[in-house]
Amino acid sequence: MKITIPVENNQETVCFSFGRSPYFLIHDTESNTNEFKANPAVNAEGGAGIKAAQFVLDTGAEALITMRCGQNAADVFKAAGMKIYKAISANAQENLKALSEGKLEELASFHAGFHGRA
Amino acid sequence: MIIAILSGKGGTGKTFVSVNLVAATENAVYLDCDVEEPNGRLFLKPQQLVSAPVTVLLPTIDRDKCNGCRQCVEFCRFNALAFVRDNPMIFAEICHSCGGCALVCPEQAISEIPREVGKVEKGVSGGVHIVTGILNVGEPSAVPVIKQVLNGNQPEKPLTVVDCPPGSSCSVIESVSQADYCLLVAEPTAFGLHNLKMVRHLVQLLQKPCGIIINKADGEYPPLEQFCAETNTPILLRIPYDKHIAERTAAGEIIVREDHLMKEVFLGLLGRIENEAKR
Ligand code: SF4
Ligand code: SF4
């Protein structure tokens, strides 16, 4: 199974924002390998969460570990049947370990978009 | 002449100024573009109301026709479309109704249907013609409603007053677009000044002449006076706090309709604006 985590430029620290994170770590539990992909939505003018969610889906990931997630991205993931877990550590690898030990809970609340009142 | 009434934040008395200005002349059009909280009608109490819906076009996708090519998703520069489980998914609040996805779809699987986002109400009160824009709760963009308010074939009157949304967002820019003059309503407080500076800056970018009304002007607030002097912004009127006016206004009355002196004050303001606009 592939698990993804939004990470900062150092590719280690979990990024506070999902849609605007510079990279996604994609961890493959079968081969135990990590891959880093640049987020194409990082400079999107609007709908960054949707675009980032689309990108993550298209990598074949089936689970996401994140600090926060916007409602729109969550809607995309829900429709796709993707699981969203709440990060408990600022370190990406620690979160992967926690997930494998069944210690992560599903993220329950999503924030409204930042696309703002036009 | 079209005068836009603006304020940095809500509650400065923007609507108070707007309704009294139109009521003082009794021969004007009042356009309420503060569509999230259109309060002018509470004072003007328009009669003979006619209401029309405001709609935007929302794409809908016929799943049977869709071949999954994703061209619509890739086209949408607002990222209002996602492709999930072999089907495009649309986010109505993100969509800008550009119509592009329907054009690029090779299977004609996308059609556009109207979606109601608010309404525009028209009515009259004395010699004032009132147009009120009302945005449905939860709608992210006020612009379609404001556009319909501004372009609603108003009767010809010597004065049009546009009651703008507070702040300096794109809905304010839309509201101000046709104005000849911008009137900024400010309160003499630190918080009021900060917001006023942002609106003043916006008006300057739009190259509109402007002046300031200081409401609840009890005593001087030097930083505000200084800002007006530095930016060469004329202070057209100071309205001190008055218990009687406050009470009548809270009761939904328009003070110029019952107080002759206040009527003269607002007509005087209008005269000053006309002179300023000519400069
Ligand atoms: S109408 Fe325009 S903004 Fe709306 S989904 Fe289609 S392409 Fe995107
Ligand atoms: S462009 Fe048309 S056919 Fe292609 S995915 Fe979109 S709706 Fe389907």
The first-level CATH class name of chain A: Alpha Beta
Portion in helices of chain A:
25-40%
Mean pLDDT of chain B: 93
Arrangement of strands in the largest sheet of chain A: 3-2-1-4-5
Distance between the termini of chain B: 14 Å
Numbering strands along the chain, what is their spatial order in the largest sheet of chain B? 3-6-7-2-8-1-9-10-11
Strand content of chain B: 25-35%
Number of helices of chain B: 10
CATH architecture of the largest domain in chain B: 3-Layer(aba) Sandwich
Which of globular, elongated, flat, extended, rod-shaped describes the shape of chain B?
A: elongated
Count of separate structural domains of chain A: 1
Total discrete domains of chain B: 2
CATH fold naming of chain A: Nucleotidyltransferase, domain 5
Distance between the termini of chain A: 40 Å
According to DSSP, the number of beta strands of chain B is 11
Shape of chain A: globular
Descriptive notes:
- The complex is a heterodimer of chains A (118) and B (279).
- Chain A has 118 residues and is α/β, with parallel strands linked by helices.
- Chain A has helices spanning 48-58, 71-80, 92-100, and strands spanning 2-7, 23-28, 33-38, 63-66, 83-86.
- A five-stranded mixed sheet of chain A has the order 3-2-1-4-5, sandwiched between helices.
- Chain B has 279 residues and is α/β, with parallel strands linked by helices.
- Chain B folds into two domains: 2-54 and 118-277, 3-Layer(aba) Sandwich (Rossmann fold); 63-108, Alpha-Beta Plaits (2-Layer Sandwich), CATH 3.30.70.20.
- Chain B has ten helices and eleven strands.
- In chain B, the strands form two sheets. Chain B has a nine-stranded mixed sheet, with helices on both faces.
- Chain A binds chain B through residues 41, 44-48, 50-51, 53-54, 57, 72, 75-76, 79-81, 113, 115-118, and chain B through 73, 76-85, 89, 91, 93-94, 140-143, 169-171.
- The structure holds iron/sulfur cluster (2 copies).
- One iron/sulfur cluster is lined by residues 61, 66-72, 88, 105, 107, 109-110 of chain B.
